[in-house]
Structures are given as structure tokens and as C-alpha cells.
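Protocol step 4 of 6.
Sequence for Isochorismatase family protein (Paenibacillus sp. AN1007) entered exactly as in the expression construct, tag removed. Do not edit the line below.
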Amino acid sequence: MNKALIVLDVQHGLTSLRDVSATLEKIESVIHVFEKMNWPVVFIKHVDEHQEESSLYRGKTENLEIVVDTRQYPVLVKNKPSAFSNSELKRWLLDQQVEHVFITGFNMEYCCLFTAITAEHEGFNVTLIEDAAGTVNTADTYEMEGLDIPDFIGSILNWSGCIEVLYTDEFMDKFVQNS
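Step 5 output, C-alpha cells:
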């Protein structure tokens, strides 16, 4: 079964809002695994077209820059939470004969969540790598004391029975050790 990695919104306008270095390290480690396995990788960049107050507004060029090395991989642009709002993504995945997508990036409760749900709806097997999917928001953002956003969203997706949620080490054990 062909696999591909979707790396969402790892952009300066988000990652500069708080310390997300641990999540970025996990994302980079997953990218390196996909390179080693010769599995395709695609980066998605969010660009807000109309919300000038957004840290990812099209006029804020520095904020739109991806903060990890995209190497030779394609970078597709979206302006809605789901990466599939750019029809090029599905076309690219089908051209690569991908059946199973793995999702990492930001923000867990928006773009990762919507991309995972849409990918499953589009017929792909989906694995979200929880510790390589973070958020720049906090429990205070949602006025929900003690909320661990990645864990909460990961639990919901996992409970759905439609989307697999793993940590990086579980991903390595299940998909890399046996390949």
C-alpha cells in the first residue's frame, strides 16, 4: 500500500507564536523517515486571502514561509482548513498511487482535523501522528482549563474508528520496523 506524508502549515506565522520546537522536531523526524523509505511527501501552505488580521494573510510574506526544509517536495497552497480544498492535492496523491496518508503539522484542531476527515471521506486510509501535529493555541484560547488540544482532537479522531491516531514511536514500530 503506497503511503504519503502531508505536512500542514509549518509556517513562520504560526510557529513564531509560541514554542513549538518539540512538535517541529517530531515533524522533521517523520519527514526523514519518509525520505529514508522513499515515500512521497507534500507540504501544504495556508494563505488567508481576506483576513488581514490573520498571521497567515497573503500580504505578510515572511509569515508565510515554511520553517522546515521542503527539499524537492511539492508545496501546495490552500486557503481553507482542509488541505483538500486545493484539488491539486488529491490529483497529486492519485498520481503517486497513494492509498494511505499520514498527517503532521499545525493546527491540530483546525487544519489537521479537517484534512484528516476529508482524506478519509475521499477514500484514503488516514493516520494522524499526534505528537507531530501541534497547535499554537492553548486551553486559555478556548477558555477550557486543562485542555490538552492535541490529545483531545487525537482522541476524538481515534474514537471515530475511521482515522488512526499514533505517536511517532508507534508509527515507527508499525510502519517502518517491518518494511
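Step 6, annotate. The chain has a mean pLDDT of 91.
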